[in-house]
Design a protein that fits this description.
Elements: H1 9-16, E1 28-32, H2 36-47, E2 52-56, H3 65-68, H4 100-113, E3 120-121, E4 126-132, E5 137-142, E6 147-150, E7 152-155, E8 177-180, E9 194-198, H5 202-214, E10 217-221, E11 228-229, H6 238-246, H7 250-263, H8 274-290, H9 294-300, E12 312-313, H10 317-321, E13 326-329, E14 333-337, E15 340-343, E16 348-350, E17 353-356, E18 370-372, H11 379-382, E19 401-403, H12 416-435, E20 440-443, H13 445-459, H14 487-496, E21 502-505
Parallel strand pairs: 1-2, 1-7, 2-3, 4-18, 7-19, 8-17, 9-10, 9-17, 10-13, 11-12
Antiparallel strand pairs: 4-5, 5-6, 14-15, 15-16, 20-21
Helix pairs in contact: 1-12, 2-12, 12-14
Length: 507
């Protein structure tokens, strides 16, 4: 399986060094965000001799999305051995699909192992970044007004970091308890309560079953249904873990098999493919199996292609919706009153607690940081009609600035860690250019435009472009989040590192 284990530093320097150049110069690198992206980038940089780096994290702990999402039964829909760095594999995962606490501990363990603690500034939010062309440096400004200068900035803010609240009349007048699933209120006891869950995406699918066990009544409000597939989860036995620990290469072989299995599923996301039809039949059969009531089943089977929205996997959510004390409501919510949620048909459902599970503001990449590039251009202006970036990493006019998990690098069929590692490799190559004589690395506007056109054309051939409401699109319908093909294509693209697409300034 392709990956990004630590490349030999001498090989990297030999590849990037210009004839006659001096020894590689020292660079200062600022990394914004201490989730999977930022932590992995820091490990790779240290492994390649870039020692002067600082990671800024606005929260008081590392972990990113896995620090923030602590709702009941929170976990990942990618297998444990695949949802981890290729250069920091674990043999002792306890489950096939990891739960939030174990993922968070994995990130913490990486911080400890690579001694990143002293390089991370917790509780430090970056609110602005400004490029100084004369000095060829970025100035990062914190919420407290402090400034920090760097030769290179790497953005690791992710796509799922800012909770999105629905625009519903009267939501702020609700007299009971209300919170977002990404900011779970663990101090509030849900036992015996009437609970409204607004939103039925990946988070709700996980927390609704355990919450329903406590509630007197639960209302699941859905704007549109989802396609479901089984979740083949189970604990690893002691024997399994011992085999991974004692048999050389077994964990790598298992990871490779998982990768190949997930990678083969991308064809189901292609419009009109026979595999897409099979996926629809399998999902329909899965829903039918677990939802015998035809009226409820009609609410739960989508009328759009598999993959238009995120495909969900679960082994208990559909069964929970069949409980007598659970009601699926697909009538639109028109308003919230101090003690009730009111739908378009006029029904008032009195509730004690509202849990908002409407996801994240996903299309406003790098927001709310104010980023000013060459000639004072604002990134928010450049992205006024939707975020885009060359290889999902670099934006013209913003030299020495690189994005992790950027525009059009999200997946609906495989592990985002694979994409991150491809990005690490590309960024390491760019930094290698800077260390070996270049002052700045920028992407040519024409190259970025051609790349974006190719990506958008490819996306139009996928289920992502179908008529459904998803977090992959802007309000205008532009798909800003997802990658349109197999991850191997992205790995191949980022591995080539076309210098002809870049503006490399040696002055």
């Amino acid at each position: 399986m392709p990956g990004t284990r630590l490349i030999d530093r001498r090989i990297l320097e030999r590849i990037e060094r210009r004839p006659g150049a001096d020894e590689p110069r020292e660079l200062t690198v600022g990394i914004v965000g201490a989730g999977f992206g930022g932590i992995g980038m820091a490990i790779q940089l240290l492994g390649h001799g870039v020692d002067d780096l600082t990671i800024f994290e606005k929260a008081d702990e590392v972990g990113g999305v896995w620090r923030d999402n602590t709702y009941p039964d929170a976990g990942c829909d990618v297998p444990s051995h695949l949802y981890s760095y290729s250069f920091e594999r674990r043999a002792d995962w306890t489950r096939r699909f990891p739960k939030q606490p174990e993922i968070l501990e994995y990130v913490r363990s990486c911080v400890r192992k690579y001694r990143l603690e002293d390089r991370i500034r917790l509780g430090t939010e970056i609110v602005a970044a400004e490029w100084d062309a004369d000095r060829a440096r970025w100035t990062l400004t914190t919420s407290g007004g402090a400034t920090h200068d760097f030769d290179v900035v790497v953005w690791g803010l992710g796509q799922l970091n800012r909770p999105k609240w629905p625009e519903i009349d009267g939501l702020d007048t609700f007299g009971g308890t209300i919170f977002h699933s990404a900011r779970w209120n663990h101090d509030h006891d849900l036992t015996g309560e009437r609970i409204a869950v607004i939103g039925n995406g990946a988070s709700a699918v996980q927390f609704v079953p355990p919450v329903a066990e406590k509630a007197a009544r639960l209302y699941q409000f859905q704007r549109s249904p989802n396609w479901f597939l089984p979740k083949p989860d189970a604990p690893f036995t002691t024997t399994d873990i011992r085999r991974f620990e004692r048999i050389p290469g077994l964990d790598r072989l298992y990871r490779t098999r998982l990768y190949a299995s997930f990678e083969s599923k991308w064809i189901a996301l292609k419009s009109g493919s026979k595999v897409a039809d099979v996926a629809r039949e399998l999902s329909t059969a899965h829903i039918t199996k677990h939802v015998p009531d035809p009226e409820l089943r009609a609410k739960l089977i989508p009328d759009f292609p598999v993959g238009c929205k995120r495909i969900l996997i679960s082994d208990n959510y559909l069964q929970t919706l069949c409980r007598d004390d659970v009601e699926v409501v697909d009538d639109p919510i028109v308003r919230v009153e101090p003690d009730a949620v009111v739908t378009a048909d006029g029904t008032r459902r009195e509730v004690d607690t509202i849990i908002v599970a409407t996801g994240f503001a996903t299309t406003d990449f790098l927001a709310p940081v104010e980023i000013s590039g060459a000639h004072g251009r604002k990134l928010e202006d450049v992205w006024a009609d939707g975020a885009r970036a060359y290889e999902g990493i670099a934006v013209p006019g913003f030299p020495n600035s690189f994005i992790l998990y950027g525009p059009n690098t999200n997946l609906n069929h495989n592990s985002i860690i694979f994409m991150l590692e491809a990005q690490y490799r590309w960024i390491l190559r760019a930094i290698g250019v800077l260390r070996n004589g270049a002052r700045t690395v920028d992407v040519r506007a024409g190259a970025a435009r051609r790349y974006d056109e190719r990506i958008q054309q490819g996306l139009q051939q996928t289920a992502f472009a179908a008529d459904c409401h998803s977090w992959y699109k802007t309000s205008s319908g532009r798909i800003t989040n997802n990658w349109p093909g197999p991850t191997l294509r992205y790995w191949f693209d980022t591995r080539r590192f076309r210098r002809s697409d870049l503006i490399i300034d040696h002055t």
